[in-house]
Design brief:
By secondary structure, the chain is mainly alpha-helical. It is built from 2 helices and no strands. The longest helix is centred in the first third of the chain and has 18 residues.
Length: about 70
């Protein structure tokens, strides 16, 4: 499934990430094993910000950086 979303700020992108996580967890709770999500987009599209939002929602404490800029 492909979708296009226009978020007007990093904060809104992170809020959207939380809504993605809520939806995924309703479909497949964490205790059921691994779930793989794929994100693609052009450079600067907000993929890293989205993943940071997912990480924050999941309680990840490590800094999430873009693999492009490491």
């Amino acid at each position: 499934m492909k979708s296009k979303i226009l978020a007007t700020s990093p904060q809104r992108t992170k809020l959207f990430a939380r809504s993605i996580l809520k939806t995924v967890l309703k479909i497949r709770p964490l205790r059921q094993g691994a779930t793989i999500l794929g994100f693609s987009g052009k450079l600067g599209a907000g993929k890293t910000t989205l993943i940071q939002g997912l990480g924050e929602a999941l309680g990840v404490r490590e800094k999430i950086q873009s693999p492009t800029f490491v």
